[in-house]
Amino acid sequence: MKIRILILLLLFPLYFSSVFGADTKVSGESYPFYQLDLTDNGSGKGYNKFDIGRVYVNVTSKLSDEVSIRVTMDVDKMASEPRNMYLKYAYLDWNIEKFIPYSTLRFGLQSTGWIGSMEKVWGRRYVAKVLLDQYGILSSADYGLSYNINFPSGYGNASLLYLQGPGYKGKEENRFKDISAFFFVRPLVKLPDFAACMLGGYYYSGYSDKADITSENNKDRLAGMATFAYGGILKATAEYFKAWERIDPGATKDTEKDGISLFGEVRFPMAKTSFLKKIALVGRYDLFDPNSDAEDDEQKYIIAGVEWEIMDEFSLMPNFQRMKTEGEKAKDTLILNALFKF
Ligand SMILES: [Ca+2]
Ligand SMILES: [Ca+2]
């Protein structure tokens, strides 16, 4: 079955380009890495491995000026079995600018928006997931319908989504659907040195993904972010979220979670050597509280590294990572992350 999907995926561009003459493109990304554990917890001090974080294979096809489609495959985590590809996105975009300016409708298995947008701000999904993805607060893709608007002149974008809930790895177990809305604005986009400064807000009002729930079984999230950027030299971002949820059918009280992620980079566009121009010093600090009623369960995550952008399609980032749960020993690793695009 999986082989059949792969063959279909490979034949897809041929089919469309030959039958309809549509503009079809194949692209993708791969995130290989080598990891060395420095501490005893986890797999043990000295444990080391080669692995691949993700392989995305995208097929996009522009069927007309108004209609385009995208199908994206991803791979399973490394386990003791072969790594299977699975569906991450499969959606159709209908550009409705003729009726409503700057607007697109999207239908199908699609990005839930906030995580994908924050990945672009963080810029290093090949090194680590962003806050709401890292701690399982949201699925990065889900089935549904969305209305998307791109503000003119690069001032930002906003979306309204109607989603299934369980995400691309789950199936619908109940009659409830979730709604979500987010926006990003770049108020200084006309000032070249400050163009990447950004503000964003996100709201998700949903229901538990389990069967036999009532409307009391909520799953609500609120998030906000701000980026300060200057002259391609400095970029610093803060992201915060809060979540309220009552997942189990019998539960009588909400669980509250919250988290913050601070990350940034320093670059050297003024450097004399072309090597230094391609270097970025990168740091990140996350603090996540999985339950505001429970003491000493906070988790910290630190990343510090140097990124070398060898070319647009190939970067390397040697980095140190520390994960620490309150009251437990830290888990430290050295990782060499690589990014390949095609
Ligand atoms: Ca649902
Ligand atoms: Ca807590």
Identify the notable features of this structure and list them briefly.
single chain, 342 residues, mainly beta, 16-stranded antiparallel beta barrel, 4 helices, globular, binds calcium ion
Structural features, described:
This protein is mainly beta. 10% of the residues lie in helices and 53% in strands. It has helices at residues 2-19, 114-122, 131-134, 274-277, and strands at residues 23-37, 48-62, 67-75, 85-95, 103-111, 141-151, 156-163, 178-185, 198-207, 218-230, 234-245, 255-267, 279-289, 299-311, 314-325, 331-341. The longest helix has 18 residues, at 2-19. The model has no long low-confidence stretch (mean pLDDT 94). It binds calcium ion (CA) (2 copies).
The secondary-structure element order is: HEEEEEHHEEEEEEEHEEEE
Please, what is the average pLDDT? 94
The percent of residues in helical segments reads 10-25%
| Alpha-carbon distance between the two ends | 26 Å
Main sheet summary: 16 strands, antiparallel, barrel
Structural class: mainly beta
Strand order of the largest sheet: 1-2-3-4-5-6-7-8-9-10-11-12-13-14-15-16
Task: State the gist of this model.
With 342 residues, the protein is mostly beta strands. It is built from 4 helices and 16 strands. The protein has a 16-stranded antiparallel beta barrel.
Give the topology:
Blueprint: H1 2-19, E1 23-37, E2 48-62, E3 67-75, E4 85-95, E5 103-111, H2 114-122, H3 131-134, E6 141-151, E7 156-163, E8 178-185, E9 198-207, E10 218-230, E11 234-245, E12 255-267, H4 274-277, E13 279-289, E14 299-311, E15 314-325, E16 331-341
Antiparallel strand pairs: 1-2, 1-16, 2-3, 3-4, 4-5, 5-6, 6-7, 7-8, 8-9, 9-10, 10-11, 11-12, 12-13, 13-14, 14-15, 15-16
This protein binds calcium ion (2 copies).
One calcium ion (CA) binds at residues 164-165, 172, 174, 176-177, 207, 209.
